[in-house]
Amino acid sequence: MDKVTPVTLEEMKRKGEPIVALTCYDAPTSALLDEAGIDVALVGDSLGNVKLGYENTLPVTVWEMRHYTQAVKRRNSRALLVSDMPYLSYETDPREAARNAGILMKEGGAEAVKVEGGRRILPAIQMILKANVPVMGHLGLTPQSIRRLGGYRVQGRTKENARELIKDAKALEQTGVFAIVLECIPKDLAKRITNTLSIPTIGIGAGRFCDGQILVIDDMLGLSDAPPPKFVKKYASLRTQALKAVLRYRKDVKTRRYPSVEYSY
């Protein structure tokens, strides 16, 4: 299969071909996504919650993102590899934003970066693009803003908020982002934004009218011990199976059934 690029995603939107995206945090999972033909592998700052045990994504650093992006890069040959820019790596200084994006691309192996926010971060996006780093946008529920938003809540429910999101989406497109993630917004608003833009939208909790969909892979595989958000469809329950396996192993060791002669040299 051909390598996916930002141009590929724009062509997929024009053809009406859905974009399939998943988060990815390590080399074995990257190989799995590669074999499955996933279009976009996002090294999300959600790794803070999913892999590092943080309460939220706010503590994640550029160096942690670089480390995990390097791991995913080693086994990825097809998907567009996008790396999240973590909190405070792009909001305060456009030049610093470009430097940090360059680190994720040059040292981490990312093929694009993703930033959260609309018009307020346009200077950072412009500087990142000047550094020849492709940028994906992210609107709606932006996890890096949970303190300001008051938690993980659906966005765009009021007419005013919906109008602001549409303005942000248009501004991001005009600035040059190649796609926008829409998180936790009403499906009709997501449809309106999708139909307004010439660039692809990728939904997560935004309904079926987006140009593509993304989920946190640990959620859809049932690896998390926390209840998943409403929009997550669990395609497996791997944590349950893994716990059963660990308990069987513990029992076998405690009763000296493992290792048996079969597993000895």
Polypeptide structure, described:
With 265 residues, the chain is of the alpha/beta class. It is built from eleven helices and eight strands. The model has no long low-confidence stretch (mean pLDDT 97). The N and C termini lie far apart (43 Å). The chain is 42% helix and 14% strand. Strands 1-2-3-4-5-6-7-8 form an eight-stranded parallel beta barrel, surrounded by six helices. It is globular. 42% of the residues are buried. The chain has helices at residues 6-15, 27-36, 47-50, 62-73, 94-106, 122-130, 146-149, 159-175, 187-196, 217-220, 238-254; strands at 19-23, 40-43, 80-84, 112-114, 135-140, 179-183, 201-204, 212-215. Helix 2 (27-36) links the parallel strand 1 (19-23) and strand 2 (40-43). It has two domains: 6-234, Phosphoenolpyruvate-binding domains (TIM Barrel, Alpha-Beta Barrel), CATH 3.20.20; 237-265, no CATH class.
Short description:
With 265 residues, the chain is of the alpha/beta class.
Structural descriptors:
265 residues, alpha/beta, TIM Barrel, 2 domains, eight-stranded parallel beta barrel, 11 helices, 14% strand
The SSE string, one letter per element, is HEHEHHEHEHEHHEHEEHH
Share in β-strands:
5-15%
What is the CATH class designation of the largest domain?
A: Alpha Beta
Write down how many β-strands occur, each being a DSSP E stretch of 2 or more residues: 8
- Say which CATH homologous superfamily of the largest domain is assigned: Phosphoenolpyruvate-binding domains
Question: How many domains comprise the coordinates?
Answer: 2
CATH architecture of the largest domain: Alpha-Beta Barrel
CATH third-level topology of the largest domain: TIM Barrel
Helix content: 40-55%
